[in-house]
């Protein structure tokens, strides 16, 4: 059974009321980056093991263009999704009592903005990798349950999805995350703003797994670990503030 994966920061949040979303201008040969706030933290290894469910190694096997979806009937403007097929190579780490991870996944990863005159511009949710066909990636997956919506799998954030060609974090995809939230060639030498990326970039994937295995969850979240991830985060914040 295949299931479509979202990224929490750019799919769920964009659909939520009151969240600022904007388009960041990029060079003409680069995709526009669609920016949004993240729903869950992903800066530290503690964040990953507290709000993630499975660390998954996967390879992109193909891409296709989804159907054109107009903004409104007859407008001529709209979007078409970039649809990605993958093969799951391994589940490298799992949170105790996490929902079982499916064997196969499809991704909706960016797409094309279509104007009324037929002009198109590629877009992607940023900062993020490109998800190129033939490249292997490692990502922290979270099972998301929101009121009134069907549960779904999502990347913890765009910063929790890294290229990992030949088993090396950072290999195989030239687009990576920098401290100012842009995508560039390789990590920011002064730090990305994400502790996990700074710790494992250029290292074997097994070093990332070892980092997660030796990192305990946030103690403030200990009594909420059986709750859905988004609810767990909200309750953890409330507990810390209290």
Question: Which residues sit in consecutive blocks of at least 5 with pLDDT less than 50?
Answer: 6-28, 179-183
Helix content: 10-25%
Fraction in beta strands: 35-45%
Termini Cα gap? 43 Å
Q: Report strand order across the widest sheet.
A: 1-6-5-4-8-9
Order of helices and strands: EHEEHEEEEEEEEEHHH
Which structural class best describes the helix and strand composition?
alpha+beta
Q: What does the overall shape look like?
A: globular
The largest sheet, given as strand count, sense and whether it forms a barrel, is: 6 strands, mixed, barrel
Give the averaged pLDDT, no decimals.
80
Find the count of extended strands (DSSP E, 2+ residues).
12
How many distinct helices? 5
Describe the structure.
The chain is an alpha+beta fold. The protein contains five helices and twelve strands. The protein has helices at residues 8-12, 45-51, 195-200, 205-213, 229-241, and strands at 2-7, 22-24, 32-35, 54-70, 78-94, 104-114, 120-125, 136-144, 152-155, 161-163, 175-177, 183-185. The strands form two sheets. The protein has a six-stranded mixed barrel with strand order 1-6-5-4-8-9. Strands 11-12 form a two-stranded antiparallel sheet. Strand 11 (175-177) and strand 12 (183-185) form a beta hairpin. The longest helix is centred in the last third of the chain and has 13 residues, at 229-241. It is globular, with a radius of gyration of 18 Å.
